[in-house]
User: Fold Sulfotransferase from Branchiostoma floridae.
Amino acid sequence: MAEQNAPSATFCYFRGARFPSPPVSPQGLELVESFGVRDDDVFVSAFRKSGTTWTQQIVSLVTTGSNISEVSRIPLGKRVPWLERAGLHADAPPIISQLKDSPSPRLMKTHLPYNMLPKQAREGKGKIVYCARNPKDVAVSLYNMRQINDMLQLLTWEEALHDFLSEPPANLWWNVIPEYWCHKDDDNLLFIKYEDMKKDLRGHVVKIAEFLGRSLTEEQIDEVTANCTFAAMKENQATNVSRDPLIQEKMLKRGKEKGIEFVRKGQVGDWRNWFSPQQLETFEAFHREKMAETDLTFEDEE
Assistant:
């Protein structure tokens, strides 16, 4: 059972989907549909714990054009703010309302399902970089996030796995990811896989740069790649918030006590260290049933 003294999870619901509140803002969610999208806007989208931070870092550095090492030390949340997040202070408006006057190009992250993205983005305006990850590794990463974040309710691995498989339909991985996959051929959406980035990081830096219309020199490509390895991101306070003393004190004390960091392993196939044979059998049967109508597949090896 979850620890009795763990904080109770609080949620808000919007169009049938469940969101943790905080940090997601109900007021912000209301503003997303009508958000005015610019042609050079970039949305970094992913299911939770599926390579969002990694993709944000790549997109941010690709769009910088120069002085990449210096920019990489600016907190990632400032470079690529969270579209549906509440304001950082109690009396601050939601992030989305603050983005209205931000200079171009605006980079934004989101965990929203495709059907909840801004209407103009769904109609082809701006660019969407979507990163998907093997759901077994997603489940493990979500569990470990609960272990480090003081704001989240502690669950056992068994409880966390059950929660992942029984999310509301609008949030369920097996509904969200196939919907994005259906739009993989849209001109303004680039669908990438976590596992493919692990195999060829430099190639994906090039692919993302080309998709965003950014012309980088070979030297710049190498520098972006070097700044986006897991080793580099783990040591970088701008990407690994566990290394930020203020954030650690505010919300990651549990992680410090457990010795688990926000940028943890970044491995493909770590799920093998967590699933029991029975859990794996149940999970894979569920996965086969839900994915029967799609050709989307994921690899299990590095």
Notes: Residues 128 and 189 are 5 Å apart (CA to CA). The first helix runs from residue 26 to 32.
